[in-house]
Structures are given as C-alpha cells and as structure tokens.
Amino acid sequence: MDDANEVIGQPNILCNADTIDMQFRTKRQFAGKVYVKGSYNKPECRVDYSSKTADGRPKGGIRLNHGACNMDRQRMITPDGMMFSTVLIISFHPLFVTRMDKAYHIKCMYREAARTVTAALDVSNLPTEAVQSDLPMPTCSYTIRSDQLDGSVLKYARVGDQVVHRWECNSDEYGLLVHSCYVEDGQGEKQMIIDENGCHTDHLLLGDPTYVEALNMAYRESFVFKFADRVAVRFQCEIRLCLKDEGGCEGITPPMCNRKAPPTETNSISDVNPYRMHDQTLPIKRTKRSNAIFRPKDADLYSQTVYVLDGSQEGESNKDEAALPLTHEYVPQNGVCLGPTGLAWMATFMSLALISIISVAIFVFYKKVSR
Predict the structure, then answer these.
(1) Please, are residues 9 and 28 in contact by the beta-carbon 8 Å criterion?
(2) Domain named ZP: which ranges (predicted)?
(3) What angle do CA 146, 77, 283 make, to 5 degrees?
(4) N or C: at which end does the chain have fewer Cβ atoms within 10 angstroms?
(5) In DSSP terms, which residues pair with 181 in a beta bridge?
(6) With left for phi above 0 and alpha for psi between -120 and 50, is residue 259 left, alpha or beta?
C-alpha cells in the first residue's frame, strides 16, 4: 500500500432512476476496493480496481441498484419523497481498514412530482371555493434514550440496560401512530417487534408504545438486547400521520391492542413526564380547515445505531465463578480431591488436632517439672 495515495476532492454521486453511482479520483493508480459498509463479504457489494483510463488516471466507481446491499429505503415527509442511502468505503489496503481509507454516507432523494388535474365542464358558472393545505408537515424523529424519556441519546450500551424508545413529531396539529417496527443487525437480518396495527409482537423485546395526550409523541421503556454474535442493533418503524382537527385521528391512534383500552400514562416515566404537563396546561391550536383534503400519510423512521456489549470482563469473571458448584466433591481412583466444603472440614479437624497435641505437650511438661 502506498501511503502517498489518497482520494482527490469529493466523489461524484449520480442518483439515477434505478441505481446510484459513485465515481472518484485518486492521486495514483488505485488498486484497492470499494464496498458497502457491513456487506464486504457479498461479491455484489464490492468492487476491485486495477485498470486506468486512457489518460492514465485511475478508474474508480461503483454502481448499486436501489435497495441492494442493505441499502436504506426511507419514505420522507419533509421533503415529500423517497430517500435511498448507504455508506460506501474506499479502501486502499487489500485486507485492512487504515488511516488512508475514506467512508462516505451517500444519500439520494427522489421527490414526488406534483400532479395537477384539470377538467372542462360545459355548465353554468358556479362560485368557486378555495381549499388549500396551509399547515407545514412536521419533522419526526426516532431516538433511543438512556434510562429515561429525556435521557441522552444512546450510542453504546450493555445487554440488560434500561432504555426508552421515543417517537416524536414537532407539531401539535398532527397525531402519529407507530407501527411495523423491526430490529435489524445491519447485515440483512431483521425481526418484527411491533406489527402493522401498532401492537407488540414480543413483550420481552418491546411492549406497546404509550402515547401522550397530544398524540404527537409515543414512547416505551425497554431493556437492551442484541442478535447473537452481532455487535450493533438498529430499529426501523413506520409512522402514520393524521390531522387531529375535527377528529381526523379517531380510529387511527392510539391503537387498540389485545382488545384492551389504549395505553395510558400511568407508569413511572409518565408520572413525571413534562410533555404530559404541557399537554394539560396549553390548549392545542386549531386551524379552520377540512380533513377531507388530508389523508393519513405514512413515513419511515430509523433510530440511531446502538453498539451493544455483552458485559464487562470483570462481571463475566464473577458470573463464571458464581456458577461453579461449591459443594461438589469428586474422589478419583488415585487420590483424594476435596471441594471447598471438604477443605473447610479438613481445616477444622486439623486445627482441633493441633490444639489437642499442644495441650498434651504442655500437660506433660508441667508434670515433669513438678517432680
């Protein structure tokens, strides 16, 4: 590997109709690899380079089909459209990641085209009424917090740590429904944990979300878990937005799970939830508009990636020692092997025997002296 080689400028990203291309230049002949982060072992997700262009410059680039190599596909609200994103790594060393390598988070946004429908009617003139949607779409987020609702956004954790999943949209006009949630390991494996109705599928992993009165935030306490032999976890959920004005969220959120009443704020986090106090003391602003012009809208939310450790080395060592059978005794054919209990009894017996021997010796000594 040549330490003097490096990427020149920024890569050129082409967002095509069905593919994403990345082209780049380096100072010297590039003979390394370009691959999708987390998918190096998949041949279709990496490219080796050893040729160069007619002018002697290195030829470098990669083309990925939409959705290939665990590419993220996210429906967006603001702006309205579809975003495809992935992380590409330019590696100069044939085997290892070094200081010369570069990682780029590639995002391609495909916006939905506005459609206008017109029709000519040969009828008498009628008065027209202007109806428009003047409410801005909210910005929504999905974060995993440490310990409590307003805890720090988590990046590293241990299995069993308490966390809070938090879904939120920054608008008092819209309500949200959290549904179709998956946990994924970043390498293609994923498992559903909240179904399409907004109800949990495995209470040990994540329970039913709790919704605040304003319906613009939901949350759920949980404990950290991970896939076997995997380090990272990330969560993906769909949210459905509804306009609360004139009952536009009725029948949409909160969900009815297991034919029980919707989750209410009765747990420890809810008792001190500042957002609930906000909802009770401040009235929700109403806008004069018709719900007929707004249909419930779905979008995708991703949490941050959390890197999960099994536990500290010290904790694992103590755990292993605690698991040893303390009273087990085994007698082999060619000798005697005592467990901790047997050793304790042997120590007691030897102590008593030593005390007895010393007592007899003292008695004999004084008897000889008295003569």
Answers:
(1) no
(2) 14-256
(3) 70
(4) C
(5) 194
(6) left
pLDDT in tens, 228-248: 888 999 999 999 999 988 888
Q: Which amino acid is located at 317 in the chain?
A: S
For residue 141, the one-letter residue type is: S
Output the six-digit token pair for 264.
């209410």
Q: Cα-flanking dihedrals φ and ψ of residue 330, to 5°?
A: -130, 130
Tokens of 20: 């994403």
Enumerate the H helices of the chain as residue ranges: 268-271, 274-281, 313-322, 340-370
Give yes or no for a contact between 279 and 265, defined as CB atoms under 8 angstroms apart.
no
- Name the β-bridge partners of 179: 238
Side chain identity at 176, as an amino acid letter?
L
Q: List, in sequence order, every residue forming a beta bridge with 76; answer none if it has no partner.
A: 81
Please state, in angstroms and rounded to a whole number, the distance separating the CA atoms of residues 20 and 47.
Answer: 14
Instruction: Look at the alpha carbons of 261, 191, 74, 224 in this order and tell me if their dihedral is positive or negative.
Output: positive
- Higher per-residue pLDDT: 197 or 355: 197
Report the candidate in 22, 26, 24 with the shortest Cα–Cα distance to residue 36. 22
Which residues does 215 contact at the CB level (< 8 Å), separation at least 6?
Answer: 175, 176, 244, 249, 253, 254
- Bridge-based pairing state of the strands 306-309 and 156-158: parallel
Amino acid 104 reads Y
Handedness of CA 166, 260, 176, 200 (dihedral sign): positive
Contact 8, 25 (CB under 8 A): yes
The CA-to-CA distance between both ends of the chain, in Å, stands at: 97
In a 3-state reduction of DSSP, which class is residue 279? helix
Whole-number Cα distances in Å, 240 to 30, 63, 243: 47, 33, 10
CATH of domain 7-111: 2.60.40.3210
pLDDT digits (tens, 9 = 90+) for 143-196: 999 999 999 999 999 999 999 999 999 988 999 999 999 999 888 889 999 999
Query: Contact 176/137 with Cβ under 8 angstroms?
Result: no
- CB-CB neighbours of 275 under 10 Å: 18
Distance CA 171, CA 295 (A): 17
Q: Are 240 and 177 in contact (CB under 8 A)?
A: yes
